[in-house]
Amino acid sequence: MSKIYIRNPWAQLIVDGKKTIETAAFNLPDRFINKWLHVQTENKMIIGKVKFKATKRYATAETFDSDTKAHCVGEGSPYHFRQRQRCFGWVVGAAVAFKAPRKAAAFKSQFRLEQ
User: Fold this and answer.
1) Strands (E), the chain
2) Which strand (E) or helix (H) includes residue 62?
3) Are β-strands 88-103 and 36-40 bridged in parallel, bridged antiparallel, or unpaired?
4) Where are the domains of the chain?
5) What are the Cα distances from residue 84, in Å, to 14, 22, 33, 87, 115?
6) What's the topology of domain 2-105?
């Protein structure tokens, strides 16, 4: 299964079902839509899995702010629309938190395809 790197606390919020849109400065590659991805955090732990069902591009701060409850990114955050030149939302279709985190190797890119 492929992996995606997401920082905490957002990673935990996603696998717990409390954050239903992940924001990013780039669009989610099509090959990851409707595919299960292990969620790996900055401490090299896989804490669950997520399946994104769609993506959208935010064109204004107002549209971004209308989804605040879903993406959990407030006005003062460095990840807010106003702090980025481009902003996308990856819509969560399903997520599962693992009962016990699993140790994983570090990786530097956002995604890693497993063999």
Assistant:
1) 2-5, 21-24, 36-40, 45-57, 88-103, 111-112
2) helix 61-66
3) unpaired
4) 2-105
5) 21, 14, 23, 6, 33
6) 2.30.130
User: Which pairs with CB-CB distance under 8 Å and at least 24 residues apart come from 15-18?
Assistant: 15/39, 15/47, 15/48, 15/49, 15/50, 15/95, 15/96, 15/97, 15/98, 16/95, 16/97, 17/95, 18/72
Helix, strand, coil share (%) of the chain residues, nearest 5 = 20, 40, 40
Helix (H/G/I), strand (E/B), else coil: 114:
coil
Kindly report, residue by residue over 22-38, the tens digit of the pLDDT: 999 999 999 999 999 99
- For the entire predicted model, the pTM comes to 0.90
* Coil vs helix vs strand at 67: coil
